[in-house]
Amino acid sequence: EAGVTQFPSHSVIEKGQTVTLRCDPISGHDNLYWYRRVMGKEIKFLLHFVKESKQDESGMPNNRFLAERTGGTYSTLKVQPAELEDSGVYFCASSSRGDPDTQYFGPGTRLTVL
Amino acid sequence: AQSVTQLGSHVSVSEGALVLLRCNYSSSVPPYLFWYVQYPNQGLQLLLKYTSAATLVKGINGFEAEFKKSETSFHLTKPSAHMSDAAEYFCAVSHGRGGSYIPTFGRGTSLIVHP
Is B106 close to A105, i.e. CB distance below 8 A? Predict the structure, then answer.
């Protein structure tokens, strides 16, 4: 069974540009989560999808961040326009409806905004 | 509200020595507690979790953790460190079925294992 995959693994962009991160959860997992870790700090929750619906987006920093989950499968997280403080590692995780608190994490996307 | 404190951003041990990574939590409801490990260039992997059953939880790779309510602690231990245990370890707390499954993470502890 394939795990959670994320693309790209690294992205370097300039301030003001747009970046789109993609997450493919484990097949059949209804729950999909996005997190961010700024260097040396905690991993912070961004938002939670249940299938295609946003269940909780309380962690989204501002309206420059837009997350979607097409058809309840893969998810994208777009940052537009990117700012320096958006740099960090963005993790995606998924869990099943039957065991929602066991989350499986992807390897993360390291975003650097110059 | 919930929070996690991991004591020590770095812990260094010799191969074969006891591993002890400390985690204290704060939660207004009975917590679910987790330890995750992140190896270089990989995602977080669940080591073990406590969900209100046995207070001593055994996980993968020989790790275990004990939930101590009176001390609000969930320290991670392993009797004998291997070189392959070198990684970053994260403690996390959630409210579980009484509330949100969204975990709150600690800042992480890097485990360094010397030959």
Answer: no
Residue A40 confidence (pLDDT): 79
* Pair type for strands B44-50 and A109-113: unpaired
Say if the Cβ atoms of A108 and B32 lie within 8 Å: no
* pLDDT at position B96 over 90: no
Look up residue B30 and give its DSSP letter. Answer: P
User: Taking residues B46-67, what's their average pLDDT?
Assistant: 92
User: What six digits make up the tokens of B93?
Assistant: 């707390």
Which positions in chain B have a beta carbon within 8 angstroms of at least one beta carbon in chain A? 32, 36, 41-46, 49, 51, 90, 94, 96, 100-108
Taking CA atoms, B98 is separated from A16, B17, B25, B28, B29, in Å, by 42, 38, 17, 11, 7
Could you say which DSSP state residue B41 is in?
Answer: T
A47 chain-B contacts, CB cut-off 8 A: none
CB of A106 closer than 8 Å to CB of A34: no
Distance (Å) of CA B63 to CA B4, B20, B24: 19, 10, 17
List CB contacts (< 8 A) between A34 and chain B: none
Token pair 């991991």 is at which residue?
A: B6
Distance between CA atoms of A40 and A37, rounded to whole angstroms? 8
How is residue A112 written in tokens? 């650097």
Q: Say which residue the tokens 């394939």 belong to.
A: A2
| Strands, E assignment, B1-115 | 2-7, 10-14, 19-27, 32-38, 44-50, 56-58, 64-68, 73-78, 87-94, 104-105, 109-114
Cα dihedral A97→A99→A101→A106 (10° resolution) = -80
